[in-house]
Structures are given as C-alpha cells and as structure tokens.
C-alpha cells in the first residue's frame, strides 16, 4: 500500500468519525488492520502504532472513569437507602416509646384516681361511724360484751378492705415497673440497631470510596463488598449491590480484554493477516520475551509471594539478556544495549 492509499484511509476514517458512525473499538480495529499492511519502521506504520496506542489508552481511561462514576452513583444510592433505613428504625422506636409512655401515664392516672377515691371513702366511712357512734351513745344501755363483739367485727372488716386496696395498688405498680423496664430495654435495642446500621453502611461507603483511589485494590474492595452483602437484609440495598457488582464485573471484563489486546497488539493481527499483506511476520523470540516481561509485571503486582518471586527472577534474566540496567515498568520495546529510559508505554526507536 502506498502513501495515497494511506491518505484515503485517513480521510474515510475522519468522515466516519464526523458522522458518528465509528466507535472507538472499531476505529482501533481499522488502524490495526492498516498497521499490518506497512513495513516495520515506515512512517505509515509508526503513525498507525501511535494512533492505536492513543486510542487504546483513551478507551481504557474512559472505561475506568465509567467504573468510578458507577461506584459514586451506587454509593449515593446506598446513602439514600441507609438514611431511609435509619429513619424507619427511629420512627418505629419513637412510636413504641410513645405507646409505652401512654400506657404508663394511664396507670399513673388510675393510681391517682384510686388514691382520691380511697381517701374519700375512708372519710365518709369514718364520718358515718362517728355519727352512728354518737347516735348509739345517745340511746345505748347494752352490756360491754355486745360492744366488744361489734368492735372486733368492725376491725376485721377494716383490715380486709385495706389489704384489698394494697393488693390492687401493688398490682398496678408491678405493671408500671414491667412496662418501664420493657421500655428501657427496647430503647436500648433500637439504639443498638441504629448504631449497627450506621456502622454497616459506613463500611459499605468506605469500600466504595476506595474505588476512586488505587486501582490495584479494587479486587479486594469488591471482595469486601461481597462479604458485607451476605449480611445485608435491606432489599433495596441488596438490589443496588447486586447491580453494582454485575456492572463492575462487566466493565472489568472489558478492561481486561482491552489489556490483553494491548499486550499482544500488532503481533496477533500480523499473524492473522499473514497471507494478505506482504510485510506481515510471525512473533519473534524478542517479541515473545517482551510479552512475557510485561505479563510478569502484572503477576508481580497481583500475585502471591511465590508468583512475585518467579516473575522477578524471569524479568531479571530478561533485563540482563537485553542489556536493560534497571526496572522501569512495562516496556513498548526492548532497546538493545544501554539503559532503557522512560516508563510504561513509552516508545523506543
């Protein structure tokens, strides 16, 4: 393919983008295809490589931003659900306390009325006795035995009446005490539930907050969210957590797929189009080593102690093999001899 064909390709691509007929992923595919048609080191191939790198980087950044937006949106919904849950518990608590207070007040009112009634009854009875005694004295001439018998009967009646009053009052006071104890216990229970709910939702909120910082910790954050989800009883929050986990895993799958394509890049496309373009070639030993080198960096970041040790040992060997003095992260190419300058994704020519 010549310069004119390359120019026509770019014009067509620009037109498709202008009329919004070309997604970023499709644009990458077209650049990869045109990249394979030109010889290594040509201006057209280098321009295609730069476009592919830039587009893939933007695609990953956009997807990462969408993950952060998803986390913030879900956290906002969780905050709303948390406030509604706490408000529901508080309303239930307040309603119970109000009902208990009403019952206690009713008993207090009854006790007060009983006290008043008893005092009035005692007064009226004492007055009647005095009046009867006065009348008896005015006309009495009977012996002392009759008087004593009547006095004993009166005393027994007084004792029984007073005892019945005491028992009735004692029963009401016991009810009042029981209600008061229940009120205190339930108030504590409601307050404990509120604090537990706040603590639970705070843990969820912290897990979502961390999504906006270190990408490498996102897997651990997701694991923590899944653990917290197991103890969740609120249906709305369960729904939001399930939706977030599903959306997040979908986005991570896209990022992982993009990362794989970015690692193998031109090599895969070149192999698949070997029979169609004269400048295609198979993966060389150096390209294979580069692929393993970059994969080992990922293993060192995410693996256990054994995986880290193996990745470090292999990359140390590869750096010595290609004359790389120090580890600068992932590489676009192995530079033969000398110190490799720069960091991940920097081009070396």
UniProtKB/TrEMBL annotation:
Q: Where is the composition biased (Basic and acidic residues)?
A: 76-85
Q: Where do the segments described as Disordered lie?
A: 64-85, 146-194
Domain of life from the UniProt record:
Bacteria
Supply the name of the protein.
Uncharacterized protein
Species of origin? Paenibacillus polymyxa
